[in-house]
Design brief:
Elements lengths: L1 H9 L4 H9 L7 H10 L18 H19 L4 H17 L10 H19 L11
Helix pairs in contact: 2-4, 4-5, 5-6
Length: about 140
């Protein structure tokens, strides 16, 4: 993490952007690896599978966190319906709230609802069905 910040400083990336890079994972748990480790060792500590933080301290950092998490979660669904996308985005955002990741960001519930709707519009544009293009004969 410190190496990344040093690189960003060397390339004169603005401090506000460096903060977003540092904060966008917050102290979230890497659930996939935690669950896998827990199967191998029931005494594994959850704390060992959390990012070091800090949690997002701005609305921008929080929105980048949510966008990153929602995008990864939705892509993991593989060809989801609009209802599945809506459910996943809602669960990710609610999970970040319940985990305390957004407490320093000053995002209001109204703003979170608007962020969620914006994500859904974006995913609808990215994940819509495509027609199959005909192959040109040789």
């Amino acid at each position: 993490m410190a190496d990344g910040d040093a690189i960003l400083q060397r390339f004169k990336v603005p401090a506000a952007v460096r903060s977003i890079v540092r904060e966008h994972h917050g102290t979230t748990m890497t659930a996939y690896f935690y669950v896998k480790a827990k199967k191998m060792d029931p005494d594994v500590r959850e704390a060992d599978f959390r990012y070091p933080g800090p949690r997002p301290s701005s609305k921008e950092s929080a929105i980048v966190m949510l966008a990153d998490s929602c995008e990864a979660a939705v892509r993991s669904l593989g060809g989801p319906s609009p209802e599945q996308v809506r459910d996943m985005v809602h669960r990710v955002i609610r999970g970040k709230m319940e985990d305390g990741q957004l407490i320093h960001s000053d995002l209001t519930l109204n703003e979170l609802n608007r962020v969620e709707e914006s994500f859904l519009q974006t995913f609808a544009g990215i994940l819509h069905d495509r027609i199959t293009y005909p192959q040109e004969e040789a």
